[in-house]
Amino acid sequence: MKTSITSVPQLYRNAMRWTEIASVLSKYGLANWMSRFNIDFISERLKSPDGEKLNSLTHPNRVRLAMTELGSTFIKFGQLLSTRPDLIGTEMANELSRLQSHAPADAFEKIKETIETEQGRPLEELFHEFDPTPIASASIGQAHRATIKVSAHPAYAHLANENRELIEVIVKVQHHGIDRVLEADLDILGGLAQLAERLDDFKNYQPSNIVRDLRQTMRRELDFAREQRNLIQFRKMFEGDARIRIPQPITALCSEKMLTMELMDGKPLKQFSHTADAPRCNAIARQGAEFYLKMIFNHGFFHADPHPGNIMIMADDSIGLVDFGMVGRVSENLRESIESMLVAIVNQDVTLLTSLIKRVGKCPYDLNESRLSNDIADFVGQYSTQAMGQFDMSGALDDFIDIVQRYHILLPSEASLLIKVLVTLEGTGRLLNPNFSLMEIMKPFHKIMIIKRFSPMRQMRKMQRFYIGIEQLAEALPIKLSSILEQIQSGRFDVHLEHRRLGPSVNRLVVGLLTSALFLGSSLMLSFKVPPVLFIEGGWMGTKDLSLVGFLGLIASLMLGFRLVWAIRKSGNLDEAE
Predict the structure, then answer these.
(1) Pairing between strand 244-245 and 319-321?
(2) Which run of H or of E encompasses 55?
(3) Is the pLDDT of residue 424 over 50?
(4) How would residue 113 be classed by pLDDT, with cut points 50, 70 and 90?
(5) To 10 degrees, the CA torsion angle through 411, 417, 419, 423?
């Protein structure tokens, strides 16, 4: 297959960046598929990949290293892919989850310019103190410590109840010009996705849809005002609960490009050791898991990045959560399906679990349902017999994802993100308690799920939705039927049929018919000695009056027949069941 550069408009822009990407992919042995396209300025970069230093690395290792070298947008792309193990497999997802966003910090002058532009006031009036050295710098922005004086501005009056005149804060500021860089890289990723869509090796990954999701995610992360709203919503969810701490945003100092929030003065979870104080660590692990399950199953809105760096342990053992740029939502329908799956596993109901998987996910048209049911039966048999306290939630979810990925069943992005969060949550809990079991913590929530499912309020809501659906159908059905009847009456009614993978079969059928016709016609010409003829006086092996056209047609039909049989045999479907 050859693709002209003019068919992909993104290739005209950012040619140097395209060349850099091709060079990096070639270096890590990941660009062989691009050599199938006729792209002049990239093809030279694909001739000599440096394989000597990378031979010992696995394919997922090389993908992660290549994305790290390509920078911020590709790191974010990898992090997004890590939440879709149903697309890329568990091994690749686990490797990409190791991607960390690090970027050089902007000069203080640029940060100051951004803050003053956003707020319309000098930096000295906004903050009592501002540390020009950042404490961290990621792909989107960098963070600085600062202090604000409560009495300095009327907008800070709501902080007076803290009984502190000076409040320490963290200020996140976007990198200068990062929006333009991200848009350029997203254009390039869109071009790569268009190329990948044309190859069978990548079609199942739906690269264009993934890039579309990435574009939406990146635009959300560029809007720090969205993270501010997330902070406010989570604080409202856990208002009055002293066991969990959410940073308070300083609304007057927030905008699309900067976010100011109170400093969480705690110890990161990754610095804890379960051997130091086992009972305390066990209690903290259980408490944190309960909060996350409450977010997921009670509120349907959860912090989607529970790795140890984003969880703080405060002096009073309360749990603090930071970095609310990535959040997840679970719809009521998905929550009901997850609850039903848990019930099916407990009851060892393979039929119900299989039907739920097919309902939640998008199944391929050629799904082998009998094999899927057998694999689901093995899965249920392995995990339904485990004791609640020893249940391996991470292993169960990983095996479930392997089954889904094996049969090319695409899960909704929110379901994939939820599975990733649950796996990460159990791994984080085991840092504090090696025997931590998320399923054991879920046991009370499982009972609550059953009670809520049959509650009168829930049934009333379902009946209300059902009634609304019936009402809409009753209104639309007469109009649709009238339209169909009008089309039939006017002769404009068309039925569109879509066939998949019938092309090779139809081609073989046509060639078979032509071969049969050619063989039969040639045999008749030989029988009736249709001129011109050979060997009039007699020839080799008693041959006489041999029709030349019939003889040539017979040879051609035999060659076509042999080629047809060979093609069918090569496809593996000559004597094998589909």
Answers:
(1) parallel
(2) none
(3) yes
(4) very high
(5) 150
Question: 159 with 212, same domain?
Answer: no
d(CA 556, CA 522): 9
For the chain, the distance separating the N- and C-terminal CA atoms, rounded to the nearest angstrom, is 28
Cα-based distances in Å from 8 to 38, 196, 291: 12, 12, 48
Residue closest to 418 by CA, chosen among 360, 349, 352: 360
If asked whether residues 338 and 418 sit together in one domain, one would say yes
Among residues 240, 263, 286, which one ends one of the domains? 263
Maximum Cα interatomic distance, the chain, rounded to a whole number of Å: 123
Q: Out of 126-130, 466-470, 528-532, give the one with best mean pLDDT.
A: 126-130
Q: How far apart are CA 559 and CA 294, in angstroms?
A: 70
State both tokens at 524. Answer: 């008749």
- Kindly state whether residues 212 and 227 are assigned to the same domain: no
Among all chains, which residue has been given the structure tokens 């009039």? 536
pLDDT of 529-556, one tens digit each?
888 888 777 776 667 778 888 888 889 9
In a domain, residue 469? The reply is yes
Query: Looking at the domain assignment, is residue 491 inside a domain?
Result: no
- Let me know whether 123 and 155 are in one domain: yes
Question: For the residues 401-425, what does the mean pLDDT come to?
Answer: 83
Range(s) of the domain holding residue 132: 102-181+217-263
- Nearest CA to 304 out of 8, 113, 97, 462 is that of 97
Q: What is the DSSP letter of 410?
A: B
Q: 520 in the Ramachandran plot: left (φ > 0), alpha (ψ -120 to 50) or beta?
A: alpha
The count of structural domains within the chain is 5
Within this chain, do residues 327 and 408 fall inside the same structural domain, yes or no?
A: yes
Q: What is the pLDDT of residue 24?
A: 77
What amino acid occupies position 561? G
Classify residue 110 as exposed, middle or buried by CB count within 10 Å of its CB (0-12, 13-18, 19+).
middle
Whether residues 173 and 191 fall in one domain: no
Looking at the fold, whether 173 and 145 belong to one and the same domain comes out as yes
d(CA 178, CA 170): 20
pTM surpassing 0.90? no
Residues 255 and 391 in one domain: no
What tokens were used for 358? 């097919």
Is 497 a domain residue?
no
Contact 178, 72 (CB under 8 A): yes
Q: Is the distance from CB of 320 to CB of 288 less than 8 angstroms?
A: no
- Is residue 515 one of the residues assigned to a domain? yes
Q: Read out DSSP for 275-288?
A: TT-HHHHHHHHHHH
